[in-house]
């Protein structure tokens, strides 16, 4: 499963779940990377032409609702997903969005799988973006995406990729982790790597794999953490998340049902009582093509030597 979704056994997600997570996602995202993407687009765009932005696995449009009003350039958006009902939600809720400069955006939706999206849907893209997607995809698909983006010379902004960091903290901020938590986190990670229809899924390995794939194509990278910090005030999201984990754990380790049910009840009641907080790690990545306008390359301290392939 997608740690950030309870409903991903087959890579289909409910609008209810995506709506629950949207405000928490928007708070968690790294604003500086959006700012840098805005700057890059402004330098690249000609004054008269709208930039083409493609949102892969757009769901009901959360990523677009975050980005469009924060980008100053005129925008032509292409939303891609394999789920027609989510695409319809996205279209109806994003139709009236405007750029940060007040210019209405243009919007088209494309019902396509991620594999199909690499050809036509990416044509002419200036910026390819996605949120909460990459744990579902395979290494081969990321390699193909990075090669295609390099061919197009576009930038990419990929946010909220789960990185496997999960922590419970008590009210004093102390991390609590016992043998059952470790069993649960390992079992969730194994469940995440199941094939979701696009090859063996990378799960929590995706953020590192993404960086390496774009570095291999000469991109300049900047990465930032974007963790969820969940407490009693985000109860409906926590409740749905932990229920989804329970389902995934029972699928992955049915012989451990008693252990899983005990863990679920104990952790859920402590969260409900406000005795625990839950931190769930994500990473955001902005990658700019090698031939970006002068002044747009990042401080290379963002690229560590182990990131750069030999
Ligand atoms: C976790 S949701 C994220 C949705 C949205 N980006 C957001 O942040 O709310 C993942 C999205 O990817 C889509 N998706 C998953 N696998 C896909 C595939 N193989 N082809 C096309 N879309 C896919 C799902 O339908 C879903 O909308």
UniProtKB/TrEMBL annotation:
GO biological process: methylation
Entry-linked Gene3D superfamilies: Vaccinia Virus protein VP39
InterPro entries reported for this sequence: Methyltransf_25, SAM-dependent_MTases_sf
Record key words, sorted: Methyltransferase, Transferase
Domain of life of the organism encoding this protein: Bacteria
Enzyme class, spelled out: transferase
Ranges for domain Methyltransferase: 54-150
Ranges for region Disordered: 289-310
EC number: 2.1.-.-
MF-aspect GO terms: methyltransferase activity
Protein name per the record: Class I SAM-dependent methyltransferase
Species per Swiss-Prot/TrEMBL record: Salinicola endophyticus
């Amino acid at each position: 499963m997608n740690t950030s979704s309870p409903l991903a056994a087959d890579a289909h997600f409910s609008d209810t779940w995506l709506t629950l997570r949207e405000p928490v996602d928007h708070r968690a995202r790294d604003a500086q990377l959006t700012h840098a993407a805005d700057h890059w687009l402004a330098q690249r765009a000609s004054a008269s032409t709208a930039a083409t932005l493609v949102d892969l696995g757009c769901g009901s449009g959360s990523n677009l609702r975050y980005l469009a009003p924060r980008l100053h350039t005129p925008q032509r958006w292409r939303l891609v997903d394999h789920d027609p009902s989510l695409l319809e939600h996205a279209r109806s809720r994003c139709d009236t969005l405007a750029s940060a400069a007040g210019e209405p955006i243009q919007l088209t939706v494309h019902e396509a799988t991620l594999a199909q999206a690499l050809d036509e849907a990416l044509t002419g893209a200036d910026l390819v973006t996605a949120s909460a997607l990459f744990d579902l995809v395979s290494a081969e698909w990321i390699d193909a995406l990075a090669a295609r983006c390099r061919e197009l010379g576009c930038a990419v902004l990929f946010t909220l990729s789960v990185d496997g960091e999960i922590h419970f903290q008590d009210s004093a901020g102390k991390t609590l982790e016992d043998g059952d938590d470790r069993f649960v986190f390992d079992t969730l990670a194994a469940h995440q790597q199941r094939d979701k229809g696009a090859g063996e899924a990378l799960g929590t390995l995706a953020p590192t794999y993404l960086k390496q794939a774009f570095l291999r194509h000469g991109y300049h990278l900047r990465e930032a953490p974007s963790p969820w910090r969940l407490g009693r005030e985000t109860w409906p999201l926590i409740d749905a998340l932990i229920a989804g984990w329970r389902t995934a754990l029972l699928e992955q380790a049915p012989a451990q049902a008693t252990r899983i049910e005990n863990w679920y009840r104990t952790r859920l009641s402590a969260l409900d009582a406000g005795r625990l907080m839950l931190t769930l790690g994500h990473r955001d990545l902005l990658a700019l093509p090698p031939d970006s306008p002068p002044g747009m390359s990042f401080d290379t301290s963002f690229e560590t030597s182990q990131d750069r392939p030999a």
